[in-house]
Amino acid sequence: MFLKKMKKFTDLQKKIRIAIAGSFGRMGKDLIKTFSKEPRFSIELFLNKDFKIKSQIDLLKNSDQFDLLIDFTSPIGTMQNVVLCKEIKKPIIIGTTGLSQRNIRYIVQFSRYIPILISENFSFGMNLLFKFFQEYSEILNNSYQIKLTETHHKNKRDFPSGTSIKIEKILSRKKESERNFDSFFSSQKKSLHQPLDKNKKILLSSTRSHLTLSEHEVTFSRKYEKIKIRHIVQNRKVFCEGVMRSCFWIIRKKNGLYHSQEVFLGK
C-alpha cells in the first residue's frame, strides 16, 4: 500500500508530455504560449506539414515521446489522430469544430480503447451555462420563444459554431433541430444573409466580425418579459487554460468518452 501511494505521488510530480496537432493555427499558437509557461507540462511534438512531424506516421514513430495528444485541426485530421491514438494507446483531447455525426459515432467507438475528451468550448463559463441549460431546458423551451445569437472572429469557418449547436440541442431537448439561420459574414464588405423564420421555436443568428473573438447570447422572450444570458470571451487564454485543466484530468482516466463539463463541474 505504501509503495502504491509513493508511486502515485511520484507520478503526480512528473511533467505531462504533450503533442499538439494544429500547432500553427490560432488556437495552436496560443496553446504553445500557455503550456510553455507551465512547468508541469513539456511540449514535445508539433504535428504540422511545415515542421519535422509532418504526418501521423511521423507521430507514430515518435509515440514514446509524449503522453497525450491535443487536437485542434480539421474533421479529417481529427479522425486520423483518433485512429493513431488508438494504435499507440494514448489519450486525446479534441477541440476541433465541424465534426459530423458520423465522425462522432466513430469517436464513440474508439473511446472503448482509449480515453477521449471532446468539447465544443473549453471555457469554464460556457460549460457552466451548458449545465444550467440542461437543468432548465424543459421549462425554458415550453415557456419562451428562444433566440440564440453568436458573434465570432472573421476567420472562423463553421456556421454556426459547435457551441451554438450544443446550446440548441440542449434547449430543444435533443429533438430534431428546428433552427433557421440568420447568418452574416461581416468582414471587408463580404456578407451572407438568410432571413429568420419567426414561426420556428429556436432562432439562430450567426455573425462574423473582425472586432469580436467569441460571444454567445441567448434571449428567452414571452409577453412583456425577456431574459438575456450572454457569454463573452475576450482572449483565447480562457480556452487554453481549460485545455490545460483537461490535460490534468484526462491523463489518469480509464478508457471512455468524456466531455469538458465533467472536467469543470463533475458528472
Automatic annotation (TrEMBL):
GO terms for biological process: diaminopimelate biosynthetic process; lysine biosynthetic process via diaminopimelate. GO terms for molecular function: 4-hydroxy-tetrahydrodipicolinate reductase. It comes from Riesia pediculicola (strain USDA). Residues 125-263 form the Dihydrodipicolinate reductase C-terminal domain. This is 4-hydroxy-tetrahydrodipicolinate reductase. GO terms for cellular component: cytosol. Keywords: Amino-acid biosynthesis, Diaminopimelate biosynthesis, Lysine biosynthesis, NAD, NADP, Oxidoreductase. It is an enzyme of class 1 (oxidoreductase). The gene is dapB. Residues 16-122 form the Dihydrodipicolinate reductase N-terminal domain.
